Amino acid sequence: MSVGETCNREVIVIDHAQNISDAARLMREHHVGNVVVVRTEGDGSRIPVGILTDRDIVIELLARDVDLDALCVGDAMSYDLLTLNENDDVDEAIKQMRAQGVRRAPVVNVQGALVGILAVDDVIGLLSEQLSDLVALLKREQQIERKRHP
After folding, report:
1. Where's the CBS domain (predicted)?
2. What is the CATH number of the domain that holds 83?
């Protein structure tokens, strides 16, 4: 299965110049743990340039008593960004995410424009659904067999 088929297409984005409080409000409002920092091109496409997570805010800023009003998103975001291509295989994407130690990765099209985000939660949901289908298949097979051979 491809990353494009699995990823969440509703990505919450922010500009690097906005403040940290704006980012936190967006995360709370949309019930997400990150915002993707984008640069908007002349054609309207959004190019991911970084990511800011709730964990970045809590661990790196709040826990160190950093004045949030003194920083913008660009000051605190992660620049070392793993992006996945929407045509990549999910299995390969998981390996890349594990190697980089990230739980979320923006998904781009062949032009590099943002089209979604793949989170570990999305993959776990997919695997859970597949396992449930397999369990249902086994149960159904057992029911059929009991009817044939009582």
Report:
1. 7-68, 77-134
2. 3.10.580.10
